[in-house]
C-alpha cells in the first residue's frame, strides 16, 4: 500500500533526507521518499500501516521535533 502524508513544519532539506533514509530502513517499508519542496512523505509498505506510521512519527520526532506528520 502506498500513502502520501503532509509534513508540517519541516524546516531543512538535510533533515528531510535523514527522515527519508531512516524510514527506508524500517522493516516492511518497500519505498520511501521525502520531498522538502512539497513537504510530503510518500511511503509504500507491505506491513501493517498503523505500526509503520507510529515508527515514522518516532523518527520524525527524533530528527525534527517541530515537524508533524499529518494523516
Number of strands: 4
The helix count comes to: 2
Main sheet overview:
4 strands, antiparallel
Low-confidence stretches: none
Q: How would you briefly describe this protein structure?
A:
This protein is of the alpha+beta class.
Structure description:
- This protein is α+β, with helices and mostly antiparallel strands and 71 residues long.
- It has a single domain (2-70), classed as Alpha-Beta Plaits.
- The protein is built from two helices and four strands, in the order E-H-E-E-H-E.
- It has helices spanning 13-24, 49-63; strands at 2-8, 29-35, 40-45, 68-70.
- It has a four-stranded antiparallel beta sheet.
- The longest helix is centred in the last third of the chain and has 15 residues, at 49-63.
Give the key terms.
32% strand, Alpha-Beta Plaits, alpha+beta, 2 helices, 71 residues, four-stranded antiparallel sheet
Secondary structure blueprint with pairings:
Elements: E1 2-8, H1 13-24, E2 29-35, E3 40-45, H2 49-63, E4 68-70
Antiparallel strand pairs: 1-3, 1-4, 2-3
Helix pairs in contact: 1-2
Amino acid at each position: 500500500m502506498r500513502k502520501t502524508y503532509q509534513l508540517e513544519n519541516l524546516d531543512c532539506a538535510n533533515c528531510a533526507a535523514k527522515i527519508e533514509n531512516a524510514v527506508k530502513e524500517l522493516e516492511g517499508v518497500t519505498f520511501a521518499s521525502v520531498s522538502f519542496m512539497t513537504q510530503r512523505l510518500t511511503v509504500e509498505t507491505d506491513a501493517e500501516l498503523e505500526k509503520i506510521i507510529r515508527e515514522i512519527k518516532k523518527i520524525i520526532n527524533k530528527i525534527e521535533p517541530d515537524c508533524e506528520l499529518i494523516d
